[in-house]
Amino acid sequence: MSNNIKYWKGEDELNRNPQFLTAQKNEFHDDLPLDEVFNEDAIELQANRRDFLKYFGFSVTAVALAACQKTKIRHAVPYLVKPEDVTPGIANYYRSTCGACSAACGIEVKVREGRPIKVDGSVDSPISQGGTCAVGQASILSLYDNERLANPLSNGAEQTDWVAIDAEITNSLKKIAAANGKVVILSGSTHSPSTLKAIESFKTSFPTTEHVIYDAVSYSGILDANESDFGKRALPTYKFGSAKVIVSFGADFLGTWISPVEFSKGYAINRQPAVAGGMSKHIQFESAMSMTGTNADFRFPMRASQEVLYVATLYNYIAIAMGAKQIPVPQQGELAGNSIKKTAEALVKAKGTSLVISASNEVEVQKIVNGINMLLGNYGSTIDMVNHSNQYQGSDKKTAEVLAGLKSGAIAGVIFYNTNPVYNHNSKEWTEAIKKASLSVSFASSKDETAALCQYVCPDNHYLESWNDAEPRKGTYHFTQPTISNVFNTRQAQVSLLTWANALVAPAKDPFASKGIFSQKLQASPYYNFIRANWAATLGSDDAFNGVLEKGLYAVAADEGVASYTGNVEALASYVSANAKASGVDMVLYQGIGVRDGAYANNPWLQEMPDPVSKVCWDNYVAIPKAMAVKLDIAEGDTVNVKVGDVSYTNVPALIQPGQANETVAMALGYGRTHAGKVAGSVEKGFDTIGVNGYAFVNNTGNRSFVAKNVEITKGDDNYSLAQTQTHHSIEGRDIVRESTYAAWQKSPNAGNDKPATHIYTIWEKPEYRKDGSPNHLWAMAIDLNACTGCGSCIVSCSIENNVPVVGRDEIRLRREMHWIRIDRYYSFNSTEGVLTKDTEIEAADGKGNFDHWQNVNVLHQPMMCQHCSNAPCETVCPVLATTHSTEGLNQMTYNRCIGTKYCGNNCPYKVRRFNWFRFNDNDKFDFHFNNPLGKMVINPDVTVRTRGVMEKCSFCVQRIQEGKLKAKREGKSPNEVQVLTACQRACPSNAIVFGDLHNPESEVSKLHKNERGFTVLEEINVQSSVKYMTKIRNNDSI
Amino acid sequence: MIHDSIIRDRLVTGDKTASDVTRDIARPILNNPSTAWKVGFTLSLIFLGIFGVSLLYTLFTGIGVWNINKSVMWGWDITNFVFWVGIGHAGTLISAVLLLFRQKWRMSINRSAEAMTIFAVICAAMFPVFHMGRVWVGYWALPLPNGFGSLWVNFNSPLLWDVFAISTYFSVSLLFWYIGLIPDIATIRDKVKSKLGKTMYGFLSMGWTGSTRTWARYELISLILAGLSTPLVLSVHTIVSTDFATSVVPGWHTTIFPPYFVAGAIFSGFGMVATLLVVARKVMNYENYITIGHLDAMTKIIMVTGTIVGIAYLTEFFIAWYSGNIYEQYAFTNRMFGPYWWAYWSMMTCNLIAPQVFWFRWARTTPWFIFIMSIVVNVGMWFERFVIIVTSLHRDYLPSSWVMYSGSLTEIGLFLGTFGIFFTCFFLFAKFLPVINMAEVKSILRNRE
Predict the structure, then answer these.
(1) What's the pLDDT band for A1033 if we cut at 50, 70, 90?
(2) Which residues on chain B are in Cβ contact (under 8 Å) with A862?
(3) Which chain B residue is nearest to residue A949, measuring alpha carbons?
(4) Minimum mean pLDDT among A719-723, A934-938, B222-226: which range?
(5) Residue A915 at interface with chain B, using a CB cutoff of 8 Å
(6) Is the pLDDT of residue B221 over 80?
(7) Is the pLDDT of residue A838 over 50?
(8) Closest-CA residue in chain A for B406?
(9) What mean pLDDT do residues A940-956 have?
(10) DSSP characters for B116-177?
(11) Which residue, of A129, A737, B228, B270, is most buried by count of CB atoms within 10 Å of its CB?
(12) What is the CATH number of domain A153-217+395-551?
């Protein structure tokens, strides 16, 4: 029935009106107004308001679209086969070994999407113990250095084909072998068992080969002394962690000497006043003001050229006390205030737990030092000669023989591995010598001074691209595994040697290689197979080997016993007598903390890292004592001419260095590179050389002497402004850093920190999130001024983690460094009138014409970063709320809201805010790693790269906090189990920085915030800083 | 009701009639520009060019072309800002406050003083705008409804108060000035010969007829605007001073700043008015309108405000010592004897000591001497701002961050360039608008004060 129901629309349809039916067939009731549209004349006339708006809208849109620039096409290529171990956004960590110096710290490499982006210490490594130095931190950038050689060089020309080069070199080697000529492999200190095996394999094929080790900064003195005293040419393992009295003659063991990270970790333990057995006492005798010297409880200036006399005197005092024979010398060298005698007393009191070291390269000095340690019974407790260190092995004597051999033609072929004698030895003679060799090969990864003279340069991989092992200490093995495939067409040096020797183990058939799977492909590398074969006896199974790789460490049980001592110190009497006199001015040539021996001079992070003592970046200079400056009329900004023998430099910047011993000057090595690159200088590429080469002053006869004697210093006729990050050096008597002495601390643990609490009146209630028992986190930091040595590792680590731009020398001259963390360094002078902390007092004392107070300096290091104030002055003044407070106590910076009024920076009492004065990325004026695509690979993808015109500052590594929180949440842990280490804390080699949650009463930071030593800087202005500093306790009541 | 006192000098000398006034004052507008005007205007354009070049260089390269640094983040820029805002104070004071106090001598100088105010505020505004690192998003400092989510401005920030204070001051001053101009523009409209002139002045005069009703409204609106402007005279520099006073920087954190800044502003404003009028009355032959009596009155104000400022300086010192706060004490000792001692002593000499010469009648009545003194006053006031901003920032709490600062060429260029803006505007004003309020002056031709 329902089918029959009919509906109609109107009467027309019902009646089937014919007109209606016709019309119904047309889809459009009216004709389309096509005529009107296509008739141009009609448009203007007939355009009504709505049409006008349509035309208007269309044209505006069209114009706008046409005006839009074509956007840059960016490619994002997804993985076709997702590698098993790469998850975008999630970092992988690989254990490896730092290759920045031969100390060989165990490290942990952070890899994001196949790019290594951060290096930190491995907690399992007995060398690094989780810490890193600035150089290790910065070494990652050398991986992404676009000035590395992209291909091997043959007679200066780039060759992409390794096979051709290999053929040429092999031919040369065979020719030399046929003529029974000698080949030398001159390498830096090498303690990798597999590398040594590879060299042995090379020697098997070419039996006339000799392997000679040469270190830019020599430890031959200690090595030779130990060879004669213990029958073993090795450095001992120093255990600073067991030493309660440390006496160092010129050794910067916290900064550059042998294994600074290892030593800092050990040293820090006993610098705690609360440590079992009491706080250690550190006595430093030195000419130049070293970073280690700044940390000493007692620091006595001495003339470096007379060190042997002072060491002998110390020996004799100890010998008297111990009832042993003295060195029969007529002169008794003593320094002001009987300091050597008092030092001897302190050492004797702590015998068995003391440690005496010297940086001297004189064998005789080192023999006496050995004698002192022997008398004190330190062998077996603080010095381990049985489980010795392999970190430095160079022989100055053999290096000199190589040079002579090359010059005379006795050596026909030379291979330079990890060494650059043309720069850091006798430059002129090496230049001539290399030209005489019939084969010269360098493994340098860039065309350095030596490589530039070699016939072939076979660029070595960066250590992050390499397989390797290392034995920094006898029985302690570290492993290196690649974290990225080769960036350039480079080849590991060991592979080159094995190829030439035809001793390469054939790569095993790798079923995955064809599938392009990352890890398996690398494992198939020939050197991996070589290492596996080398370790087959102990780590044969995959599980065993992989287990060791994962930990980065393989250790065999330490040997017991004490090395037998056969030294005879008395025999040195005549040497001491002959060398006891000093004349003229001494110059100490030392390694700077940043660029060290110069191998990493082309690394902008290290150039920009201020020297921990002088705070100078981007230059070396002659450090002169105040008395000399006054005598020569040298002021800040002046230059000096330096002359030693027939070597001279004119107009070298001068720096008046407090603590510099009178009649001595000092200059950092590692500068004056002529073939480094755009950062440190390159003659070839036309980049100015930074600083002058101090190696020119090194006396290369015998054991190389890093103390130049009879130095002539005159005032230069030029001015030079050094780029310093800190230009005011006294604390002006302000209560910014608190300090006390150990004796006072023993009486009361709040010694030095017992000022009555500031009365703070506030009408505001504590915010909810700050109250105890609040469920959120409350992030805070604690910094132990007793632990901090000022080394600057945190500065570099922070720059890497947070993509802090490098700004260069000129910007630092304008006081515009961008570092988020800095280390404030204050001097105070000890004078007869007490401690001088104000410039006015110092000037008054200077006016008396006696500058002894400039030699007797106390130094404070205070790491300073955003204090994340609860009442942050920066937050209230921002007109656009670009900086705000989080409910976890963080002072946050919203870069993309910032309009750049800089008011926050002015109102920050700690002056930790940094402004982006320019666009620091993609800007040719700042041609560092941010200006090239390869260098940008090091950028941390978790942190925004800031644009021009915005303010930035320390964020307490908010990205790491977030990561830690997410991880804990994912794993179902409680908030108290969130693990966050800030970048500065992670890098610190002395555990000075502690970060954590104040709402977790069990956290270390909570405990430290309640510690009696804790104080906040500028408490009286009630900004409620979140960073507590632990009062500095000096053990300097009496020697 | 006209009082004619024989004790006081006439406000307008030279027995001028109403038609003399119109003729004298409209002369530069109706005639071709004089050589002096052409030379001055060209010079101003050159300086304007310097401003343009310096500004473009800054905008394209970054604020880094200035020498401000990690500790001294405000330097010449904000010094110049406060300097110009200060200069912009006299105009409103003269027209509004003196109007309310029925000081009739103001009538022949208020027009140019107000014009000066407006131009000075334009110059001042350049600095807070272009000192921003990202000036292209500078409008975020305005409380504009937006699509960025819940983003809003921070009403706690003195910089935001500045935005309101200065824009209010500028708009009220502009309005006040323009309303005052209307009757005179109408007079010019009736005199000018060219068609373009007639159209332009006709448009600008807004149909002024000169009827009693329009005059009554004119008087009323002037009074209302004067009432509105008076608090602004005090508020603008008070708020500018809070940029410093609300901070924690030693040397800035001072409650004396608001009155001290206002006094300083009036001081420098009158200095600038004196500079301009001493020259203008001579060059434009307005000595009968801007009489020695005017100069005398202005110099007295300069002396009084200069002394107030000087006392404020001394009070600051006393309080710094009395506070027992070592940071404050150091900040003030550092001003006197630190590396910027020359800036401090220039300020003291120019602002406190130099104006004391106006105790002498000769000094108050000798135009060339007043001209020199007016320059001295403004040099001193520039140094005052430099001393407050730079010497406080360059050595604050932590000695590790103590730095030195000196302006770069670009910063100097921008400062000189603002004189280009100022004088270009002023010369255009002198050419195209009556620099003396004809209508009002006509009402006091027989007045003695």
Answers:
(1) very high
(2) 400
(3) B133
(4) B222-226
(5) yes
(6) yes
(7) yes
(8) A814
(9) 94
(10) HHHHHHHHHHHHHHHTSTTGGGGGGGS----SSSS----TT-HHHHHHHHHHHHHHHHHHHH
(11) B270
(12) 3.40.50.740
Look up the CATH architecture of domain A221-388: 3-Layer(aba) Sandwich (3.40)
**What are the C-alpha distances in Å from B327 to residues A580, A864, B250, B395?**
51, 19, 6, 9
Q: How many CB atoms lie within 10 A of CB A272?
A: 17
Cα gap A897→A879, rounded to integer Å = 10
Among A133, A241, A118, CA closest to A987: A133
Among B133, B153, B157, beta carbon nearest to A900: B133
State the residue for tokens 């937006």: B146
The overall average pLDDT reported for chain B is: 89
Contact of A665 with A622, CB cutoff 8 Å: yes
What DSSP character marks residue A150? Answer: S
What is the full DSSP assignment across A370-426? HHHHHHTT-BTTTEEEEEEE-S----HHHHHHHHHHHHHTSEEEEEEES--HHHHS-
What is the domain extent for residue B385?
Answer: 18-131+180-442
Please give the Cα distance from A611 to A795 (Å, whole number).
11
User: Nearest by CB to A910, which of B62, B327, B398?
Assistant: B398
| CATH (residue range A739-1034) | 3.30.70.20
CATH 2.40.40.20 is right for the domain spanning A583-724: yes
For chain B, what is the domain count?
1
For an interface test with A, which of B401, B404, B406 has the most A Cβ atoms less than 10 Å from its Cβ?
B401
Q: Tell me how far apart the alpha carbons of residues B186 and B199 are, in angstroms, rounded to a whole number.
A: 11
Sheet holding A857-864, edge to edge: A834-836, A822-831, A857-864
Neighbours of B437 (CB within 10 A): 25
Q: Which DSSP letter does residue B10 get?
A: B
Cβ of B73 within 8 Å of Cβ of A734? The answer is no
Nearest residue, CB atoms, A907 vs list B141, B249, B398: B249
Q: pLDDT tens for residues B272-290?
A: 989 988 988 888 888 888 8
- A755 touching B (Cβ < 8 Å): no
From B137, B395, B397, residue closest to A909, measured CB to CB = B397
Q: Is A523 left (phi over 0), alpha (psi -120 to 50) or beta?
A: alpha
Domain spans of chain A? 153-217+395-551, 221-388, 583-724, 739-1034
Minimal Cα distance from A1017: which residue of B? B398
pLDDT in tens, A481-533: 999 988 999 999 999 999 999 887 665 555 554 554 444 444 457 888 889 88
* % of chain B residues with pLDDT over 70: 97
Give A715-753 as a 3 state SS string: EEEEECCCEECCCCCECCCCCCCCEEEHHHHHHCCCCCC
Residue type, A263: F
Question: Phi/psi of residue A1032, each to 5°?
Answer: -75, 125
Q: Which residue in B62, B163, B402 is closest to A727 by CB distance?
A: B402
In a domain, B371, yes or no: yes
Is beta strand A712-719 parallel, antiparallel or unpaired with respect to A707-708? Answer: unpaired
Phi, psi of B93 (to 5 degrees): -60, -45
Rounded to two decimals, what is the model's pTM?
A: 0.89
Q: Do A915 and B400 count as a contact with CB atoms less than 8 A apart? A: no
Q: Are A814 and B67 in contact (CB < 8 Å)?
A: yes
Dihedral sign, CA of A293, A298, A302, A304?
A: negative
- Selected residue of B58, B66, B73 to mutate for chain A interface (largest A Cβ count, 10 A): B73
Residue A609 CA to chain centroid, in angstroms? Answer: 8
A732 touches chain B (CB under 8 A): yes
| A60 touches B at CB < 8 Å | no
The radius of gyration of chain A from alpha carbons, rounded to an integer in Å, stands at 34
pLDDT in the model for residue A751: 87
Alpha helices in A604-705 (DSSP H): 604-608, 626-632
